[in-house]
Amino acid sequence: MGVWRRLLVFGGVSLRGCGGVRVPLGGSRLVICRRQFSGAESETLKQRRSQIMSRGLPKQKPIEGVKQVIVVASGKGGVGKSTTAVNLALALAANDSSKAVGLLDVDVYGPSIPKMMNLKGNPELSQSNLMRPLLNYGIACMSMGFLVEETAPLVWRGLMVMSAIEKLLRQVDWGQLDYLVVDMPPGTGDVQLSVSQNIPISGAVIVSTPQDIALMDAHKGAEMFRKVHVPVLGLVQNMSVFQCPKCKHKTHIFGADGARRLARTLDLDILGDIPLHLNIREASDTGQPIVFSQPESDEILLWCQDFEFQ
User: PANTHER family, per this entry (predicted)?
Assistant: First the structure.
């Protein structure tokens, strides 16, 4: 993305071949098979493996009416991914008022978009029996949070979750959108793979704090998107610094410039540095995102002008 090793333990059975070395292990024998592939053989093997892996994968189908899809993801939960997704959607709309922007929340177990966008209620159905997004601040929004009670936990197994994701992707009447920002759940599991393999994605934005623990998972998240051939647009370093509101002293609570170091390792851009600030938290909790409520605020940097789509 060679040396192959196969370790086989058989009780009392002697195997030879593949240049195997027979090693006694109590009453069993350990057979180590090794084979060195030439460059041509290795490349052929990779191509064959890719063909096998591609079988049964869903064919990507665009979401009707949507031109560009941007996913906002993180390997670790609690790093401000949903806050970033919400403010990114609002920033894209503010950057060009002629662009129509939507926001899709596929974090089935922990949907945050309804509260952050100050939206409640069940979606109406169109004549074609598709769900109509709820609208606020000029952004069309859809979330599992609109379909269940706010305090009701979703105790679902994987198949039910994937069915819900399919409905969120295919049974929403978005109208005509220039950008659809998708708020992904943390991790690199079924939901991420399903979204990446079912719809064409223009790019992924990875959100992380500068903390080493978060960066480890952010690295995995970036590599996952590369494996499924989704362009990674860059990293957002959230909670980068805390400035005391009284003395103005700056403290790097989660470490300094960790995401910048990771960006250099992955050969990616840093799309923005977002400080740890009370205004951002309060704006999110009250359903008045800071890009909308305080667009000239010093506490937030707009990075949407750095995004370029073909």
Answer: IRON-SULFUR PROTEIN NUBPL (PTHR42961:SF2)
